[in-house]
Amino acid sequence: MVNLKNVIIAITVPLPSIVFYLTFLKSSSQSPPLSTTNDAPHWLPNLWTWCTHHPLLLANLLFFFNIDILFWLIGFVQSSNWMIDLYWTVIPVMLVHFYASHPFARADRARSVAVVVLTWVWSVRLTHNYFRRERWEWGQREDWRFSDMREEYGRHWWWISFFVVYACQQVFLMGICLPMYSVHSSEEPWSICDFVATIVCVVGIVIAYFADTQLYDFTRKNEILKELGMPVEPNLEKGLWRYSRHPNYFGEQLWWWGLFIYGWNVGHGWTFVGPLVNSLCLAYVTVLVERRMLKKESRVDAYRLYQKTTSVWIPWFKSSLKGGKDKKL
């Protein structure tokens, strides 16, 4: 019953923004606009005009009211901020369609189609990984980092969570999705740089998929071994994880930096801020994850050795403790 309730919440929670935006699109496509009819409030023409000329601000306002505030209220009532993890995989898809369908939009069709399709592929991969990791349950737990902070901040967490969990997510998500806005605000023709961007995005998605799948298989294997009372493997050092301690993070960064290349190619180099902030955030998350690994006594020695011999992000040859290359490669 709890799971069904969370399913209903997750499906209905974005409806305020969706209904508002569809109403705006319908109004802007009418001739004369719905806002000029006798039954329309006198302030609607100004509202629709503002929405037409300020797509970025409109997207941020919808995010603020529908996610920052509404998600936070739901998380407060449920004592769990599980929904933001799920919507990390959905919001970029909503944003790319927002920018592509907005009356302000103008874009090279090939570039627009490439970005929309790749965003969907990225989202399907990440959504599948999320539900696979969560055993196909909706909202059974929140991110362990939020759970740790809930214990750390205690009775102050109810208001701190608004900024740490939601307002910060707006900065990250709106920032890394800026190239989607850039692509749909320029008719610069498709070029060789767009091919490069496409390749980088595809490679990033593929690397992240295989890295996450290998991690999932490793985790499931250890769970089975534990149930059978057999020793578990302390570290995952096979596949992509042999050459990088966080290949999933590396693949995710490739995707976002590849998306930036699309924005850079249409003259919006300033959009580098988004993937840069995301990379800095992942660097911090990497530190948190590795500290967590080192707290587990059963794997601390093996993981310290793993740290000394394996690249952090970028896949590279395994090193010996003396700094030389592993001759067994």
From TrEMBL:
Keywords: Membrane, Transmembrane, Transmembrane helix. Pfam families: DUF1295. InterPro entries: UstE-like. One of its GO terms (cellular component) is membrane. The keyword Membrane applies. It comes from the Eukaryota. The chain crosses the membrane at residues 6-25, 56-76, 82-100, 157-178, 190-211, 269-289. Signal peptide: none annotated. This is Steroid 5-alpha reductase C-terminal domain-containing protein. It comes from Acorus calamus (Sweet flag). The lineage of its organism: Eukaryota, Viridiplantae, Streptophyta, Embryophyta, Tracheophyta.
